Amino acid sequence: MPHWAIVVAHGDAESSRYYIHSEPEGTESEALAALLNTVDAFKKASRPKSIKRQRRQVFRVSERSYFVRVMHRGYSSQAHFTLAELVADTHDDDLPDTVGGSTEGP
Fold this sequence. Notes:
By secondary structure, this protein is mostly beta strands. The protein has one domain (4-85). 13% of the residues lie in helices and 38% in strands. It has one helix spanning 28-41, and strands at residues 4-10, 17-22, 55-62, 65-72, 75-85. The protein has a five-stranded antiparallel beta sheet, covered by helices on one side. The radius of gyration is 18 Å and the shape is elongated. The two termini are 29 Å apart.
């Protein structure tokens, strides 16, 4: 079964920080559902009394990638969420050591 990761990039392009938010298990459709739940949960637009509602925009970059921007009174926050599939791992006998598929050393 494929191994999935939801990768998040926070910040501006020049200073983005990437990290793995979660590693959902299951089929691709189950992992995509986990991605959509993560995107929907990111800084939900709120509306406390006497405060203007935040503007929250979600852009689909691809079927496996979404960009979220939240703006409120001079404040802006953004994140890019991507569903990634593990394709190489030196500690997994079912996967090659490299993306090219080679398992031999130099």
